[in-house]
Amino acid sequence: MNPIVLQLANGNLFFVGLVMIVAVLLLRLWFEGRILGLALRIGYIAGIVFVIFSATPMFIWFYCLWFGFCVIAALVVFGNNFSFRRKMLASFSVLFCSLVMCLIELPYHLSPTIRVSSGQTIYVVGDSISAGISAKERAWPEVLGDISHFKLINLAKPGATVETAMNQTAGIVESNSLVLVEIGGNDLLGHTESKTFHIQLDQLLGKLAAGNNQIVMFELPLLPFYNDFGKGQRNLAKKYNVILIPKHYLTDVFGMKGGTLDGLHLSQKGHDALANSIYGLLKTN
Questions:
Q1: pTM for the structure as a whole
Q2: For residues 201 and 187, what is the distance between their CA atoms, to the nearest angstrom?
């Protein structure tokens, strides 16, 4: 998969873009020059594009506020009719807003701890990423069950969407279980609208939570302008006390050499890598 697409999907370019914007403004305060000015303008625009295209699920009003500060700062800092003091104020307004955005988003990129009790059953609800597409590969849930020595039941089905994943919940016959949810990719790449996705995911998580299960959900790597899918996941995660696994756990496997069969579905190497990374999050009570 294209490295730039991966960096957009895992959200890293959100942080890169913010750093680029702030760096450009600070450099422009102290350095002049026609060629340098052109390069800084290009870098500034690229930084804004990175942030917007990263589809980071953030309040639209905050995006608008940040973008407004960026436009004003560009006009002031790259202009010739403003004092150094005003240029400093414009730059630091963008710096402050960008810092707040980083602090809001950063927790979603940190590795969580998943507490598992001895003897607790682990279920996996998911699509082809978890079910696999070939009998030659052992899907990551099976590999995880082997290396963790927990009883693990993989309910994932190829082609599953959030709506059809409701059928998988019938296989969860024990309460107080740990349920790993890897679903939504087919909705994102298909024709499901974000509002429908939110409603169906609400129903799915509500069904899982009714069994007093601990729910852990993979956060979806997002395409540009698909912010609402990520926002829906995060809002519902708060509603049902769901632990979110950061997007990079999936994109790291998608991007590794030989990690996929077709750029998306995992090879045995990919399944093994994902199983080991999730195993690293499990902590036995």
A1: 0.92
A2: 11
